[in-house]
Design brief:
It is built from 12 helices and 43 strands. The chain is of the alpha+beta class. It folds into 3 domains: 15-292, Distorted Sandwich (Beta-galactosidase, Chain A, domain 5), CATH 2.70.98.60; 310-507, Aldolase class I (TIM Barrel, Alpha-Beta Barrel), CATH 3.20.20; 593-684, Golgi alpha-mannosidase II (Immunoglobulin-like, Sandwich), CATH 2.60.40. The strands form 9 sheets. Strands 8, 9, 10, 11, 14, 15, 17, 18, 22 and 23 form a 10-stranded antiparallel β-sheet that branches.
């Protein structure tokens, strides 16, 4: 524990020696947090107003200061009739610090409302090497009656706009609906008249939970919020006030707080970058992997190559699966997953005896004997209306049904439902010897306004997120910490920075084919690191370099082929492609992603990674339907002073070139036909 009340601030000229630290100036009542990248300053003014003063990245010289026209505070909460924000007056009750792992510090600032209605605790966090401020606010009800929180702002920031114009950037999620929803990238120049650009994030929403903005000088900010429920986030610019204003509110919040109880806002973070939106994504991913994300298994063996029987259309039995397990193991598959259809029905989570006469546990043991991990598909938020669960507990359903494979939806923030689900999860994991949970469902955060449940009927969005799906997964992971979880909410429709806390990977576009897979990976790898861009390769994809290269870049590569139907040449080809993927996965997941050209139905698309630790790069170049048999590819982000060996997986050509020449002149990539692809390697000599 480091107490900042008496700490004399050591100059930020040498922060790398001391790491993240804080200092309190009792005369100015300022809190200064710094690490080896940034400094953040907050003040409790003489009038008792708690405000942010500045956020500065002194390694690149960029600073973001509060506006004189519109001050900024990390506090923006509406509780009953009271508004706690930049204009509310407080007294300083206490302050202290806590060391964090990995190598960070958390500053607690305890503020008492002058009117006596609340105690507010502001938590501010910095981590070494990260140009990011992470934060949350605790609200304590100091009144004698329950109070309903109806609004909390996860991004309550206002900055001086410095008379610049700004461009906002965000990314869609995936959806099976008819609207464009496959991780499209959206850019808008902000209207200086204050018209906001909006991000609608969370489970079953439109966009990923992330936003970036930059000016014409490439000064930029990025932000993420750690909440799986629906939220509306905006960024707006006012030329008249010369401000840039963020906001991110939880939709339909109506959370009761009893006297002397606390409410904790979801964590959020804001960071500084300088450059293009690839740089914003890279800084976000570096922070997420260092601080937020569920630790992945050994980087040399993850992401996994997996197999899933979806190509059989749900009609699987133990003999078919044993046959495919033998073939999968011979190909080098590492994770063997049983998809929807293994149970008696959705919500009746016991193996179907007609399909598994020896038991699912026996099949798991066989898979383990072949050297693979064993996983099962679990749609935990759904249940067949004829299942014993619903017959015995018809009120456990949510008021809105998402119609997942004719099932009804469950309300997870109803405590009896949650307790039953945790018990079912333990049974599945223990009885079936499970290493991996493929969590699926149409919508993980249900809508429910039943007054018979243990949540407030008007607080469904928050309750079914934090006290629902998050609580269920957290309890099971605490009880069975060695089981890994995959997010597959509606094929990639809960892409948030709370999701990364619980899952080691996430699907991005379900089993929608090679071209759609490249589209999804291209967009998802702006906010999220490549391991959260998992791909399902369906039975309909060709067993060809075009097919396999389309799944080369990203997280787990999940084969859904009927392996027993492939001929020896096809199996041999897949085995070689799997080995190629395994040799390259650490380059991809450990590097910076460069989005060179987005996939289009009539063009060439390029996605590249550069791994600075290995001084190596890899690019997947794909011709979809153009008439161009070759493409001049100019790599980006290489070390100009290094010399690289450039080689290809299809072409026999090999070059030796310095990075500066490679980036300036490029290399020609042969793409002989439509639907052809090449993987370009650039290895440090």
């Amino acid at each position: 524990m480091r107490n900042a009340s008496i700490l004399v601030w050591i100059s930020l000229a040498c922060p790398a020696v001391f790491g993240a630290q804080t200092a309190f100036d009792p005369e100015q009542r300022t809190f200064t947090l710094g690490n080896d990248r940034i400094q953040a300053v907050f003040q409790l003014t003489p009038e008792g107003l708690f405000r942010m003063q500045s956020l500065v990245d002194y390694t690149i010289g960029d600073q973001w200061t509060a506006s004189l026209n519109q001050p900024s505070s990390p506090i923006r909460i509406v509780a009953g009739p009271d508004v706690f924000d930049v204009s509310r007056t407080f007294t300083l009750a206490d302050h202290y610090t806590q060391d964090l792992s990995p190598s960070g510090i958390r500053q607690y600032i305890v503020l008492d409302d002058v009117a006596g209605a609340a105690r507010i605790v502001v938590l501010l966090e910095l981590y070494d090497g990260q140009p990011v401020l992470r934060y949350r606010v605790w609200y304590r009800n100091q009144t004698a009656a329950p109070v309903y929180l109806t609004s909390v702002d996860m991004l309550p920031w206002t900055f001086n706009a410095y008379n610049q114009r700004y461009r906002a950037f965000r990314v869609n999620q995936w959806s099976v609906g008819s609207v464009p929803a496959n991780f499209e990238q959206l850019q808008n120049v902000l209207d200086i008249n204050g018209t906001p650009v909006a991000v609608y994030s969370g489970a079953h929403a439109s966009n990923c939970g992330w936003l970036a903005v930059r000016d014409s000088s490439l000064r930029g900010l990025f932000a993420g919020w750690e909440f799986d429920g629906r939220a509306k986030t905006t960024i707006a610019q006012s030329g008249a006030q010369n401000i840039l204003q963020f906001s991110s509110t939880i939709t339909h919040l109506n959370h009761p707080v009893q006297p002397l109880d606390y409410f904790q806002t979801p964590y959020a973070f804001i960071g500084i970058f300088h450059g293009d939106f690839d740089e914003a994504g890279f800084r976000t991913q570096q922070f997420s992997e260092a601080v937020l994300a569920k630790p992945a298994p050994d980087a040399t063996a993850f992401p996994y190559v997996a197999w899933d029987p979806w190509g059989y259309g749900g009609s699987v039995d133990e003999n078919t699966l044993r046959q495919n397990a033998d073939l999968a193991a011979s190909l080098g598959v590492e994770l063997f997953i049983i998809d929807l259809g293994w149970a008696r029905s959705i919500g009746d989570w016991y193996e179907a005896p007609s399909r598994f006469p020896s038991g699912l546990g026996a099949l798991a043991d066989y898979v383990h004997s072949r050297g693979m991990k064993f996983g099962v598909h679990w749609a935990l938020t759904e249940a067949d209306p004829n299942s014993p669960l619903i017959q015995a507990n018809p009120d456990w359903t949510s008021t809105e049904n998402d119609n997942y494979h004719d099932a009804v939806s469950l309300c997870l923030s109803n405590q009896p439902t949650q307790d039953w689900l945790v018990a079912q999860g333990l049974h599945i994991i223990d009885d079936y010897h499970v290493d991996w949970i493929l969590q699926d469902g149409e919508n993980m955060v249900k809508t429910c306004n039943k007054s018979t449940h243990t949540h407030d009927p008007n607080d469904s969005n928050y309750s079914n997120a934090v006290n629902g799906i998050n609580a269920v997964v957290s309890r099971l992971q605490t009880l069975r910490p060695n089981v890994l979880w995959e997010n597959c909410e509606d094929g990639g429709n809960m892409m948030t920075f709370n999701m990364v806390h619980s899952y080691v990977t996430s699907i991005t576009n379900d089993a929608s084919g090679a071209y759609a897979s490249r589209q999804a990976v291209y967009g998802a790898t702006f906010p999220f690191s490549p391991r959260y861009a998992e791909r399902y390769m369906p039975q309909t994809d060709p067993v060809s370099t075009y097919g396999t290269h389309s799944y080369r870049f990203g997280g787990n590569w999940v084969l859904m082929n009927q392996l027993a139907a492939l001929d020896p040449d096809q199996l041999g080809f897949l085995a070689q492609e799997i080995q190629n993927y395994k040799r390259q996965r650490s380059i991809i997941t450990g590097g910076k992603v460069f989005h060179v050209f987005a996939p289009s139905s009539s063009g060439v698309d390029v996605i590249q990674t550069f791994n600075a630790g290995l001084d190596a790069a890899l690019a997947v170049v794909t011709r979809e339907a153009t008439d161009t048999p070759e493409y001049l590819y100019k790599p980006v982000g290489l070390n100009p002073n290094s010399r690289y060996t450039v080689w290809f997986e299809a072409s026999p050509s090999v070059y030796s070139m310095p990075g500066s020449q490679l980036m300036a002149n490029g290399v020609r990539v042969i793409l002989p036909t439509p639907a052809s692809s090449e993987v370009v390697h650039m290895d440090h000599q």
